[in-house]
Amino acid sequence: MTHLYFIRKTLGIKDKNIHFEEQVTEERINDQNHLVLYGKLTYTPKACKKCGTVNRSSADIVKNGTKLSTLKLTHINFKPVLLKLKKQRFFTHRLYEGMVSEYVMMEYLLSISPRLDKAYRIVSRLKWALANRRFSYFQTTLKDAKKETYPDKIRTALNTLEKYIEPIKNAFLCTLSNGPVEGINNNIKNIKRSGYGYRSFINLKNRILISFNLLNPGRKPKPLFYTKRTAKKPSRSLTLKLGKLTTPPLTV
């Protein structure tokens, strides 16, 4: 028998969904010492109590963090016992009566807004092309988007993608990227910002070298290489994730 059984037996707790932590502290509240136990109440509901949605997967009923409650129990050695219990919460959307999945909410929002539905379709198709490295489909989608009207922010993003279509093509085909360099530049700016500026360039240089572990004699730099990537088969999991509204034809 584990310590959990003895704690439940001593405190008279019959709920098996409560899991206790292996720590007991002592707090002084209102000029009196209290023994404090810590636990968590978590479970997987079979269905929503309000709307009756059956929980078939993790996407049907969404867990939404915990809520801390303090419960007064019995006395041990003339000291009151408190239980700080984290209760599992579930996501309930204001547009629905019960707990629903994010996919159901997405379909509802798309059904009440044609503009949002159109924007969601075009963005999902571009994401699909990028994930599967289908540059021809990516370029075709941008060309077809000129025939339709979209919100200003979507249109601005599409124009930007079309403006930089050649660098985007290289990103589809090549493994070489300036992403690491941009990340290093951003970290250097954060170092300057956290130090409120440096009067000495030598001090700034040393801080950068230490932060990136460049002074370590055993450090081996990563080799710089360039290879061409080929388009891969569309993944079924990604296609399902994007939703049935965004699954593009596979004859690209």
Could you please describe the fold and organization of this structure?
The protein starts with a helix and ends in a 10-residue tail after the last helix. It has 252 residues and is α+β, with helices and mostly antiparallel strands. It folds into two domains: 3-102, no CATH class; 113-176 and 230-242, no CATH class. The chain has nine helices and four strands, in the order αββββαααααααα. A hairpin with a 2-residue loop joins strand 1 (18-29) and strand 2. The protein has helices at residues 3-11, 102-112, 114-132, 135-145, 152-163, 165-173, 179-194, 201-211, 236-242, and strands at 18-29, 32-41, 63-76, 79-90. A four-stranded mixed sheet has the order 1-2-4-3, covered by helices on one side. Helix 2 packs across helix 3 (114-132) and helix 3 (114-132) packs antiparallel against helix 4.
Helix/strand layout:
Elements: H1 3-11, E1 18-29, E2 32-41, E3 63-76, E4 79-90, H2 102-112, H3 114-132, H4 135-145, H5 152-163, H6 165-173, H7 179-194, H8 201-211, H9 236-242
Parallel strand pairs: 2-4
Antiparallel strand pairs: 1-2, 3-4
